[in-house]
UniProtKB/TrEMBL annotation:
This is Small ribosomal subunit protein bS21. One of its GO terms (cellular component) is ribosome. It comes from Roseibium hamelinense. It comes from the Bacteria. Belongs to the bacterial ribosomal protein bS21 family. Transmembrane segments: none annotated. GO terms for biological process: translation. GO terms for molecular function: structural constituent of ribosome. Pfam families: Ribosomal_S21. The keyword Ribosomal protein applies. Gene3D superfamilies: Ribosomal protein S8. The gene is rpsU. Keywords: Ribonucleoprotein, Ribosomal protein.
Amino acid sequence: MQVLVRDNNVDQALRVLKKKLQREGVFREMKTRKAFEKPSEKRAREKAEAVRRARKAARKLAQREGLVGAHKR
């Protein structure tokens, strides 16, 4: 991973790096690897993640088809 430092602005480059690491899931993976995870906990976490992904995909499909309005932030 590479981040360019423009005009000696290291603070902005650090912010960009943190955002990229967050998007890649590095922080989440570091947290999970910090301690041992029982196989049953791993299965439950992976199943919850799959459910979350499926709901997100269904929500995006409904928005594309115009069934649900877009979420405003």
